[in-house]
Amino acid sequence: MLMLIPDAEIDRWLVEDVPFGDLTTHALGIGERPGRMTFQARETLVVAASEEAARLLVRVGCTVNEVCPSGAKVEAGTRLLVADGPAAALLAGWKVAQTLMEYASGIATVAADIVQTARAVNPKVVVACTRKTFPGAKAISLKAIMVAGAVPHRLGLSETVLVFPEHCVFLTGESLASALARLKCVCPERKIVIEINSSDQALLAAQAGADVVQLEKFSPDVVATLVARMAEVTPHAKVAAAGGVNPANAADYARAGAHILVTSAPYFAPPSDIKVVISAR
C-alpha cells in the first residue's frame, strides 16, 4: 500500500533515538566494519511498516536486500527484512526499525483478526477503526489497519460529520430533525452520522434523516433488534456498532446485522514479537 510518509517523518523517528550517533559504537571504533541485520517473525503476524523500516535503514546508510510487504500474513520464522551495511548504520537503525515494525504489525494483526472473524459471518461487513491513534503515530497506525483490510472510521474532525450526544447538549430548543436538516444543507456532500446511546434515540435518529446510526456500547442482541426495526422504518439508514468491538465479539456484531463495526481495539494491541540478528561479515 502506498502511504505518503515523508522522509522528514522518518528522520524525526531517528532523531528521537540517535541524534548524535551511537556513542557505544563510536567509542569501540567498530563503525566501519561490515555486517548484516535480519528481522524475523517469532510468531504468526500480519506484517506492517516493513517498507518504512527499510526506508529508515537506507536513510542511515544501509542497503536493504529483502522486504516482506505490509499486509502479508506470515508464520513464525519468516524473514521480514534483511539489510547490509557498516556497523554504525546497522546499530543506529536497529531498534527504531524493530520497534516500528513490532508496534505496527501488532496493530495490523489484531485488525486482521477482527476483519476475518466478522467477514466469516457477513462478507459485506465493514470494519472501521477510530481516530483514537496515539498522537504523532496516525499515519503508521492507519497504514497498519488498512493493510489488514479495515478502513479508517474518521481521519479527523475536519472531514467527517459525526454528531455526538455532546454536540446535542448545545442544541437548546432545536429538534434533532431540524439539526440534521441543517447539516445536510451545510454539508451536502457528507454522510450524516449520529452516535446514540438508547434504543429510542436510535429510531428517532434514523427517522430524522441520519445516514448512519452509531450504536454506542449496545449488546449484539439489542443491535439485532434495532437493525430489524430500523429496516422497517428507514431502510436507507446504516447501523454501526461501536464501543468495545474486538476479536472476541466481532462475529456476534456481524451476525446481529450491523453494517459497520467501529473499533479502537487494534491501536491498543500488544506489539508483535520480531527477532533481530546482527552478524559481522
TrEMBL record:
Record keyword Membrane present: no
Annotated Quinolinate phosphoribosyl transferase C-terminal domain residues: 107-276
One example GO MF annotation: nicotinate-nucleotide diphosphorylase (carboxylating) activity
GO annotation, biological process: NAD+ biosynthetic process; quinolinate catabolic process
Keywords noted in UniProt: Glycosyltransferase, Transferase
Top-rank taxon, per record: Bacteria
One cellular component term from this protein's GO annotations in UniProt: cytoplasm
Pfam families: QRPTase_C, QRPTase_N
Domain Quinolinate phosphoribosyl transferase N-terminal: 22-105
Record has Transferase as a keyword: yes
Sequence similarity: Belongs to the NadC/ModD family.
PANTHER family xrefs: NICOTINATE-NUCLEOTIDE PYROPHOSPHORYLASE [CARBOXYLATING] (PTHR32179), PYROPHOSPHORYLASE MODD-RELATED (PTHR32179:SF4)
Record protein name field: Putative pyrophosphorylase ModD
Organism in which the protein naturally occurs: Candidatus Contendobacter odensis Run_B_J11
